[in-house]
Amino acid sequence: MDTPERAGLDPEELRLLVSEVHDAVVRGVEGEHPWAPGAVVVAGRGPVIAVEEAVGWAVRYSAYDAATDRGIELPPRARVPMTADTPFDLASLTKLFTAVAAVQQLERGALGLDAPVAEYLPEFRSAAERHGITVRRLLTHTSGLRPELPLYACSSQEERLALLRAEEPVDAPGTYRYSDLNLLLLQYALERVTGHTLDVLVRDGITRPLGMAATGFGPRPGAAATEDQRPPWAKADRGMVRGEVHDESAWALGGVAGHAGLFSTARDLAVFCRTLLSGGSYGPARILSPASVALMLAPPGLGFAVDQPWFMGELSGRGAAGHTGFTGTSLVLDPATDTYLVLLANTVHPRRGVVDNRVRVAAANRLARAVRET
Description:
- By secondary structure, this protein is α+β, with helices and mostly antiparallel strands.
- The chain has helices spanning 4-7, 11-26, 94-108, 125-131, 135-139, 157-165, 180-194, 198-210, 248-252, 266-277, 290-297, 309-312, 358-370; strands at 38-45, 48-59, 61-65, 70-73, 80-81, 88-89, 216-217, 228-229, 239-240, 262-264, 281-282, 285-286, 305-306, 321-325, 329-334, 339-345.
- The chain has 13 helices and 16 strands.
- The protein has a seven-stranded antiparallel β-sheet, sandwiched between helices.
- Helix 2 (11-26) runs antiparallel to helix 13 and helix 3 packs across helix 8.
- It is globular.
């Protein structure tokens, strides 16, 4: 890690950023319950990592006690401290990697941005043709498909695919509705046109060239724990989940899915952010052209959310792009100032609850205020 001054960032604002994340984990937000058992934050500008801090626990609880509405804490010696190298279940940050893999195929001419999805997946022709579902609409969540399907309740892969094939949009074409199904369909289209599974496409096209050795689909036994997954709050009965994908549908699909399943570290995600801020290259590797990166990050974003103050805070409003994940993960990159923020936390450990974005917003605000003109 380098210094904030070398990055052109105010050290006091970054000190406060770290302090506020620490306080949220240890003492809670505004006197409430702790935000997460643990977290890792990395922030930087240009080639400089100015902040890299870990706080709390990667594994703190053995289970969740529904009767007392509390986690059952492990003995101190059995807990696993959070470190800067702890892998996290990225949840929906996986969508960004699927989107990059898709744009790589756009560059190669294997996919067309405005081509009907049925061109690549004839078995989905009925719904896709009637409702005008294109690759662009999958990437911008404007296909009209509902957020999810109970794929975890199916007994076979054939049954899961049949359920997906039968799905009809619930909104008019062009209407925004965030949906995991968009990235699942995109995964199947990618696998069909390339002849490779998504995990291979992500490895060979993104993580290996960039040297992101800690990033990949599970299992990851050393990852931060997520949830004591049981009905009625969860959709499957799996007990305390660690090192396997938290998302129930991605789990039912074998852990490799277009919408969830990747594990990574904050340092690896900093490389991913730097690559995009540099127009698709990192060191000697180039994974996208500058024009493709600009297309992905331009409003409304292809795979990326753009200028969303609910998690980007003051970084939004000038072309910032990023995403969040259900397990407590997020990243934001700001091309206007060449800065990025990766904030990973296991907020669903030991049990999912109401999403609290205040820590994400506060951290983004600190980074925005830290930028010095150079």
